[in-house]
Design goal:
Helices cover 81% and strands 0% of the residues. The radius of gyration is 23 Å and the shape is globular. The chain is built from 18 helices and no strands. The mean pLDDT is 85. The chain has helices at residues 3-30, 32-38, 43-71, 73-93, 97-125, 131-142, 145-158, 162-183, 200-212, 214-245, 250-277, 282-302, 309-319, 322-336, 342-370, 381-387, 391-415, 423-442. The chain is mostly helical and 448 residues long.
Length: 448
Amino acid sequence: MDVRRRRWVVWSVGLFAYLVGVMHRTSFGVAGLDAADRFDAAPAALSGFVVLQLLVYAGLQVPVGVLLDRYGARRLVITGALIMSAGQLLLALATSLPLAIAARVLVGAGDALTFISVLAVVTVWFPPRQVPTMTQMTGLLGQLGQVLSAVPLAALLHGPGWTPAFLSAAGVGLLAAIAVTAVFRNRPPGAAAAPATPSPREIVDGLRLAWTEPGTRLGMFSHMGTQFSGMVFALLWGVPYLVAGQGLSATTASVLLTVFVAVGVVAGPLFGEFTARHPMRRSWLVIAVIAVTAVCWTVVLVIPPPVPAWLLVLLVVVLALGPPGSMIGFDYARTFNPGHRQGTAVGIVNVGGFSASLLVTLAIGVLLGVAGPGGAGGYTPDAFRAAWTVQYLVWAIALTGVVVARRKARRKMAAEGTVVPPLREVLAVRRQARRRDDRSDARPPSST
């Protein structure tokens, strides 16, 4: 098999492993209310499941980036798949809250090893011009794992029950580990060997250099501002909000989560192509996604519930733009850092969105416990309405970070000889070029 065909086979297996990882990550979102009954968990305790999962995920991103640069992607993806399967197996058998929380911690740890490892293989196997689009395709097609949790896993959960549902999830994870072992490879045949194992001092220096690079911080704040709202919605609070806060049926809520995934799959390649064609304007797309998401949530929260069904569909569509928007953060890590520390830089970027997601998930759980009529809290429309407002603080922090880091990155680029002209100048030049073309088309043909 030639390299061109083999790269697609390797990528497909890596994508499958990530897709299964997303299924594990989001499986608790469709099981939130069932878990509340099974473990007699209050809203704050329920959010604690996902908060610990995300805390482990976010906390491991930088160490995983260092391990990726040192040991390669294949080992990390196999290990991650096995750890997540163990977590789902434990959750299937758990009957007490501590065991269930431990299970989600295992899922978070395995999940942390998977995505950035698959992205590292994409960077090595595909030509540079294709990498932004393939990054988007990996991130967005991987979100089909939410469909696995929203449809077949939910059907098993509400049919055979809790234990068969999560045992099935563990089995799929084991299948992913076997497939990766058989097919997945770190680099194409004949490619340059991996750099020598860095010393502890070199690891520390790599971390410092990756963080001090303005482009890495620009990627982190971009990832933070675009990802967290959709992540919190899909990971835990979307289904309870749609069912208890807006009066939809559980089936309709699952359908909307499927719409979330489908819109993201369509938007991903478009975002990737824009990033590849206009690398100097990536930040404007990030800012646009953050602004549109904040505006749409504002409209939904201002209207007393239940809001019109079309507005909830619009909200889900807008939230679906967040994951492809967050992929731009990884493109910053790739283009602003040399190859030997890209794993570390990608890990730093990934901390942004997942740290924000875990804080917002926890805050919503706490606010649901104290908001509502008379301070009684609970899963009420008014409590949900108050709880979702915590997002505005994160958007403000992320937008500020994007603007400040972008300014520093452009200063560094200018010092290195690459000047990014203001957008108004670019648009003015394009308008002048169009006018010249129009005048040229309007001239009568030559008589000669």
